[in-house]
Amino acid sequence: MTLLMQGAQLDAHLAAGVSSERTIDPPMMEERFTTIRGQRLRYLVGGQGKPLVLCHGFLSSAEEFGGRFSELGAHRTLIIPDLPGNGDSPPLTGRHSSGAMADLIFDLLTELDIDRFDVGGLCLGATVACALAKRAGRRAERLVLHTPLLSPDLMRRRYRDQVRLLSRRPMWDGVVWLSRQRWISDLYKRFVIVEGDVDDRTADINYDNQRRADPRAAREWLNDCLRRDDVAVVAARADRTLIIVARHDRLVDVDRLKELIATLPDLHVFTDSDQGHGWNEAAVHRQLEVLKEFFGNCHGAANGSNGSNGSHQPAHALASNGANGAVHARPVLRDAVTLPLSTS
Fold first, then answer.
1. pTM of the model
2. Dist CA 211 CA 203 (whole Å)
3. Domain boundaries of the chain, sorted by first residue
4. Which end of the chain is more exposed for a tag (fewer CB within 10 A), N or C?
5. Do the beta carbons of residue 318 and residue 328 sit within 8 Å?
6. Gap between the Cα atoms of 125 and 127, Å rounded
């Protein structure tokens, strides 16, 4: 069964249950640094096959995907940047809009000589993924948006009003201080984000990411999200798009989002009936099979409809599949080291 089906059918097909047993060891990821237009950028790369660019969420880093969705690296070359002002990527000198961050990633892909690629984004990272897809045009093929904040109208009103209030000065200074108090952060994630049970290592990484995030970058990114409307971007796409929503999401208005999705014939939806806006190990296991099926060749199936997946070779040998199936050697960048990501 493929994903060429209506959203309700897809929900029913995948709600039957997904095995929680890990069948593929996640790839080793290589940490790299580069400088683009004077902006230093850290990113992780690893895996094999067609490139898949992943954009992390708010107050996070590339490690958000490590050891979780990194299993996709058996079938895709994962390229996961620390977005500016997050992780080990310093903030931009200008405003942190989703478009500005997408432009930087687009230039990174150009530097890596990558032609066609898939792209995914989580939460606020979905706004960057949409901006990148728009900028890249047909070069950006399949698009995955995980618990996306597509427009202010598709956010729950209470959350939208909360963000508008708390992102103003001097309230924002208090928010920054509170976010760096571990017990307050844990309570917020459990009862507002509804993250569920996470292991201690993942919780430590999440908290460390919050403390490292640049306050100005975070505030500007939030405010940009309140002004963006990516519905038209998604509706105009010619290639396949998957949206993953969580039934108990307290940030996204899931019902309104699914009503919108139902009007778009080439857009598919998977509803995680047991999850809130956050996600834990159990949610990852449920969603991995969805992503593998959506990307088409993750079970050894034929190449994608555009014929651009090409042969799968090790990540150290290939960066991408270029136009007409041409293979590009991955350039060696400075300051490159190899490191494993958490498998938790």
1. 0.76
2. 13
3. 7-339
4. N
5. yes
6. 5
pLDDT tens, residue by residue, 31-57? 999 999 999 999 999 999 999 999 998
Mapped to the 3 state alphabet, what secondary structure does the chain carry? CCCCCCHHHHHHHHHCCCCCCCCCCCCCEEEEEEEECCEEEEEEEEECCEEEEEECCCCCCHHHCCCCHHHHHHCEEEEEECCCCCCCCCCCCCCCCHHHHHHHHHHHHHHCCCCCEEEEEECCHHHHHHHHHHHHHHHEEEEEEECCCCCHHHECHHHHHHHHHHCCCCHHHHHHHHHCCHHHHHHHHHHCCCCCCCCHHHHHHHHHHHHHCCHHHHHHHHHHHHHCCCHHHHHCCCCCEEEEEECCCCCECHHHHHHHHHCCCCEEEEEECCCCCCCCHHHHHHHHHHHHHHHCCCCCCCCCCCCCCCCCCCCCCCCEECHHHCEECCCCCCCCEEECCCCC
Alpha-carbon dihedral sign for residues 27, 30, 36, 41: positive
Q: What is the layout of strands, in order, in the sheet containing 241-246?
A: 267-272, 241-246, 140-146, 117-122, 50-55, 76-81, 39-47, 29-36, 337-339
Topology classification of domain 7-339: Rossmann fold (3.40.50)
CA angle 76, 72, 310 (to 5 degrees): 25
In this structure, how many other beta carbons lie within 10 angstroms of the beta carbon of residue 35? 11
Q: Once rounded to an integer, what is the mean pLDDT over residues 117-131?
A: 95
Handedness of CA 76, 252, 85, 98 (dihedral sign): positive
Q: Which residue has the higher pLDDT, 231 or 1?
A: 231
